[in-house]
Amino acid sequence: SKTERTFIAVKPDGVQRGLVGNIISRFEARGFKLVALKLVHASPEFLEKHYADLKGKPFFPGLIKYMASGPVAAMVWEGLDAVKTGRSMLGATNPLASAPGTIRGDFALAVGRNICHGSDSVESAEKEIKLWFPEGAIQYTHALADWTFE
Ligand code: DAT
Ligand code: MG
């Protein structure tokens, strides 16, 4: 286990439903450090890069259209095992299988409207952070660091 960065994005449905603050709160409360944050209305071309691995899936056109339908709240969170823990905080891809207590398990019903994205590996996190934040993350001392891990 080590300090990692993960890319988390509240999808257009999550923004419209007013869930940005709740999702940010969960990552703050868990002890993660916010190192990048912005609202982006992404183009289909940009989103095809983000979801390049899924090109060819039957749901791909619908996924791109949904993700381009409004702004997303893009962020980078840093901390101990941020990628794995971020995924467990999100819950399963299909909200039908997401446990209550997870973001998707608390707020979502349908796989095509599952309100939040999270990187699935350290490698994809690095790729996604570069794509969404070419300007880089913010460096600062986190006041809680000494209280959240050794
Ligand atoms: P995740 O977002 O959990 O990493 P993924 O990378 O496999 O899941 O897929 C990206 C998104 O595509 C997912 O959040 C919702 C959509 N999606 C995945 N599988 C789908 C399916 N079978 N039908 C409709 N949308 C799907
Ligand atoms: Mg994924």
UniProtKB/TrEMBL annotation:
It holds the Pfam family NDK. One of its GO terms (biological process) is GTP biosynthetic process. It comes from the Eukaryota. Its EC number is 2.7.4.6. Keywords: ATP-binding, Kinase, Nucleotide-binding, Transferase. Its cofactor is Mg(2+). The active site is at residue 117. It catalyses: a 2'-deoxyribonucleoside 5'-diphosphate + ATP = a 2'-deoxyribonucleoside 5'-triphosphate + ADP. One of its GO terms (molecular function) is nucleoside diphosphate kinase activity. This is Nucleoside diphosphate kinase. Residues 3-140 form the Nucleoside diphosphate kinase-like domain. Belongs to the NDK family. ATP binds at residues 11, 59, 87, 93, 104, 114. SMART domains: NDK.
